[in-house]
Fold this protein.
Amino acid sequence: MKKVLLVNTNIEKIPYPVPPLGLCLLTAILENRYEVKIYDGVFDEGKNLVKLVMDFQPDYIGFSIRNIDDVVMDRSVFYVDEILEKFIFPVKAVTGVPLILGGSGFSIFPEELMQVTGADYGIIGEAEKSFPALLDALVSEKEVTQIPNLVIQGKRMAPTGFSFSDGMQPSRLHSDIDRHIDFNPYRSRGAYSVQTKRGCSHGCIYCTYPLIEGKHFRVRDPEDIADEIEQAFHRNDNIMFEFVDSTFNDPRGHAEDICRAIIRRKIKVRLRTMGINPRHCSDELFTLMTEAGFVQIDATPDSASPQILGNLRKGFTLPEIEKMARLIKKHNLPTMWFFLFGGPGEDASTFRETLDFIDAYVNPADMVYMTAGLRVYPNTPLYTIAIREGKIRKGQSVFRKPVYYFSEKLPKFQLDHLIMEASSHRPHCIPAMETAPSPDMVKAAMAIREQEHLEEPMFRTLIRVRKVWKSAGKL
Ligand code: B12
């Protein structure tokens, strides 16, 4: 059997470490035909990688590249140099086997990453079909050029020729993360990631998700999702499950079916999810989510100004966000809210509209993240807008030097000032720069949790600390 080593190059631990879901899914597909090993670099950070390569002697090595930068303009961590130094270059120094790249960061910047790594191949987007096809072709020395979404070193990439129309129907997609990697380090701060669908059919102007996953929702069978959660739940005591979809409650009705399938299993799981789409919110959805075990959600409306919602092409309205907020309050679901200021048309009055919404609708025990400026990614409508407005040149690379979009009507320094001002007397509102709490603050929060036996999400305890520290002038 040929041997494949899959390397997770993501060492970021903020806001918490994330397990390499994609690599686990690929392993599950490959393992009956190849001997597969995952090197999870999150905690080892490359230290034992070369030794593993020497011992395992893989025939092919795949690198997963997830994050390029942290998308926080004023902090701006660029991950790629570390990925090269800790993972790619040391491996290249000891082996000449084909190197293959993939992952969400790679899918956004394939050309740049092929160039800086010198890898032999790359696969854009999901790889359950293409990666085995590539390996099989390499093993049997067959032609690889017909493999969908494949990039080959030294060959020109099709400018827009990537398609997910024939993407896999993800009916069964068990990652069994804890079988493929050591899940122990993720237990306290991380979560077992679950994907319930592929693709996103929304058209938010700045977003990369349709480029990474395709433009159409392709859903998993709710029973299969519940089976995976039930099995992982029985293998692991008291872990958190996290849905990693672009939006959890899309397309309409799917989230409800997933919750019903989990409820029928009669297991006491803890669930959380990323984006809830305000358009498809109902009392029934929140009732089912609470019953299924949701202890925390993210709400990501980006703005509460009707004009900005339209300009960002969010596809939902202010009344729909207000309805979602009322349901969140009614069901008392701890929520992290995310707002993204500075998009096309933003000015002081649209900023104010969002602030008014926060004051009227958001529970002050919940966290509100306020980000200034929109990261411009290639092949997005925002990239075209930025060219039209003279903010970037046609063809300009935004890889190593990220560009952030700010509305002409609200320059960065004014927006920063408004955010600082708003957050200074709202302890639950946090500017993006401060999303990583200081070690002292985490220590204080942990102490309160222990003293008061709190089971609430950590962000709620952190807000308690912030409130006390703010009133004591410590912040
Ligand atoms: C869910 C998510 C989160 C969750 C993660 C929760 C969790 N439990 O995992 C949270 C909210 C915590 C989060 C945080 C962050 N995220 Co995030 N996140 C995502 C999201 C939406 C999905 C990731 C995912 O799990 N996908 C599902 C799995 C199955 O896909 P996958 O792992 O990519 O694998 C598939 C393919 O990529 C491919 N593949 C993967 N590896 C390999 C390897 C080889 C060899 C091959 C051939 C193929 C291949 O095949 C796999 C199966 O089809 C993506 C956007 C997206 N749609 O991809 C952003 C995304 C990855 N995040 C991004 C960023 C920036 C971050 C943060 C840095 C933000 C911040 N400052 O906090 C942090 C970093 C956290 C960390 N520790 O790494 C960016 C990265 C781009 C960039 N600018 O660098 C993305 C792309 C969003 C964006 N802005 O465009 N994130």
